[in-house]
Amino acid sequence: MKTRALQSTLTADGNIRLTLDEVDLGAPGADEVIVRVDASPVNPTDLALMLSGADLSRATATEGAVVAPVPAAVLQIFPGRIDKTLPLGSEGSGTVIAAGTSPAAQALLGKLVAASGGMFATHRKLPAAAVRELPPGIAAEVGASSFVNPMTALSFVETMRAEHHTAIVHTAAASNLGQMLIKICAADRVPLVNIVRRPAHVEQLRALGAGHVLDSSAPTFGQDLVGAIAATGATLAFDAIGGGTLGGQILDAMER
Predict the structure, then answer these.
(1) Do 161 and 114 meet the contact criterion of CB atoms below 8 Å apart?
(2) Could you tell me the CA-to-CA distances from 176 to 56, 185, 193 in Å, in that order?
(3) 33 pairs with which residues across the strands?
């Protein structure tokens, strides 16, 4: 069996080379399955690996590839990936269409599963233990995002506990990840300060049960932030935006 897979190569001459390659999968081993990929999201980490800061305004199509130059610093930062072709797609979901002879592999035949790694492809061959059967009624598009954001949201709470904090501040809280974090913190009774950028997001998160939702565009944001941090005792923040003044505002509010 073959697959068509999107792959990225950082070339020694300073370019990103994107190709859609036909790859021979071979038959599944005893404890392996072949998944027909039905859906795969594009995460920021996928874009970083795929493009590595390439200047797409200068991209060209040549010899079945899209080629675009990257900043010179990229070659210095990632010397280990120069001239190595890497598969893309950190997560996705699909249907098991072939399975090895082991009971674990056979039990997955015909099932919709979630998997990670190399999912920007038509098919993936994976160990049976590396895929997770999705619950009945879950659409492939929903199950496709069941690794990166959920694991990140869970890691926020575990990091909080490991570093002996008791509450969290989170920016870009209206995101898919942010909405997951609200539900996790509610279940674990962790105080959470959610920062969004639009009034509509405030109502959206309050409808999910969020207790502290602050609009950074509001004129009272600074004093609202101090009040929410005082109420929750938050001494840990996860900044999903980066740059700008928000990180400094959060630290200043904690100090106050």
Answers:
(1) no
(2) 27, 15, 16
(3) 99, 126
| Burial (0-12, 13-18, 19+ Cβ within 10 Å), 175 | middle
The two structure tokens encoding residue 93: 């979901």
CA distance 224 to 231: 10
C-alpha separations of 178 from 96, 109, 183, 193, 255 in Å: 31, 34, 9, 11, 24
Please give the structure tokens belonging to residue 249. 């505002």
**C-alpha span between 86 and 69 (Å, rounded):** 17
Helix, strand or coil, per DSSP, at residue 183: helix
Other Cβ atoms less than 10 A from the Cβ of 249: the count is: 16
Instruction: Read off the pLDDT of residues 62-100 as tens digits, 9 standing for 90 and up.
Output: 889 999 999 999 999 999 999 999 999 999 999 999 999
pLDDT digits (tens, 9 = 90+) for 32-71: 999 999 999 999 889 999 999 999 999 999 889 999 999 9
Q: Across-strand partners of 71?
A: none
Residues 125-149 as b/e (b if ≥16 CB within 10 A, e otherwise) read bbebeebeebeeeeebeebbbbbbb
Under DSSP, is residue 92 helix (H, G, I), strand (E, B) or coil? strand
137-157 confidence digits (pLDDT tens)? 999 999 999 999 999 999 999
Contacts of 229 (CB under 8 A, 6+ apart): 169, 193, 253, 254
